[in-house]
Amino acid sequence: MYRYQLEKANDWFYFYGVDDNHYPHNMHQLPEVAETFFPEITKQPLKIVNGKLVNSPMAFPDNGIIFLNTAGSIYYSQTIYQVGHELCHFHINANMVDIHLRPNMFWFEETLCEISSHLFLDEYMKRLGWDNKVQSMPYDSYSQFLLSEQFIQPFNTKALFLTYSQEIEYLKNHSTDRLKNSYVAKILLPIFRQQPSLLQEARKLRNIYSISDFNTFLNAWSDCVSLEHKSAIQEIKERLLLL
To answer: What superkingdom heads the lineage (predicted)?
Structure first.
């Protein structure tokens, strides 16, 4: 397995060995892109391991490690998609022991981290463009592909605001349902594209996951965030109640 030290970060290393490419070209930009969405995240030591590992991708913030599971480092878009998601979990650093003890709103973190993936793909496309010689799907095309019908499962998002509805109780108990999380992410993504700094506020969710009512949960998040982001959380409510 190769090791690559990422510049412009405090002790960030990328380990990869799933293909014959000796230089992970697009990872060079990762610290700067990560700082765009999560200021000061690069001050925390981090090891990113891209390999065939069971149950990965996943993040262990307290241990300073992220595991990816891609088809290879040369699959640039898939790599950035996964690392964008896991860096979001790394940033939030929720108490996973407590989360697994009871049903809760952790599914919303999964949704925000899905949004994070697409914002990372957007930023990479903006900064680097695309080399058509690369065999991977371009960043913007990959984002569109993962938001297509085959990767989402529409459902009645209005029901999320009904206490003990089938929809909200399901997500509380199945926080990693990627199809449903991706559907909600697709609805909310325009808000975050308009105001990407809102993603920084995701860390404030980690202390309120035990709130059982979704509207109360969003209100509690709104109470925690800066004034400039309160209207965006109101828009989150409005978009989900429209469908």
So the answer is: Bacteria
